[in-house]
């Protein structure tokens, strides 16, 4: 299947036109459903051990705690996931990037950043939290943050 893109500056940001053969209708309807579906993850509430769906846009960061991942939300609440941090790398398309060996940060929540000691990067979020980006990930995070500011 060929996919052709045409970029039109006058087009509204929340509008996409797709021209297709009627035979592809089912595929495109599935694609539309996936695009419009709010992205969520399932985590455990540590207070009552119940599973809860969390929208990705409410998550500030993921932090490893051994075989568990601590999920930090914008409203300062914390939840747990029984996953390894490396399994969450697939969230890069949602603007979640690994910043060191123990944390993944939602770059949509970043308010400012500055150079730290030893080629590290200090990132300040809208929730007034500060995260340290290791040297290994600093270049990629700087590029992503610079691109999102343009």
Short description:
This protein is of the alpha+beta class. Helix content is 18%, strand content 35%. It comes from Enterococcus avium ATCC 14025.
Could you list some keywords that capture this structure?
single chain; 150 residues; 5-stranded antiparallel sheet; 2 helices; 10 strands; globular
Write up this protein:
This is HTH LytTR-type domain-containing protein. The protein is 18% helix and 35% strand. With 150 residues, it is α+β, with helices and mostly antiparallel strands. The protein has one domain: OB fold (Dihydrolipoamide Acetyltransferase, E2P). The strands form three sheets. A five-stranded antiparallel β-sheet has the order 5-4-3-7-6. It has a three-stranded antiparallel β-sheet with strand order 8-9-10. A two-stranded antiparallel sheet has the order 1-2. A hairpin with a 2-residue loop joins β3 and β4 (68-73). The longest helix has 15 residues, at 135-149. The two termini are 33 Å apart. The model has no long low-confidence stretch (mean pLDDT 87).
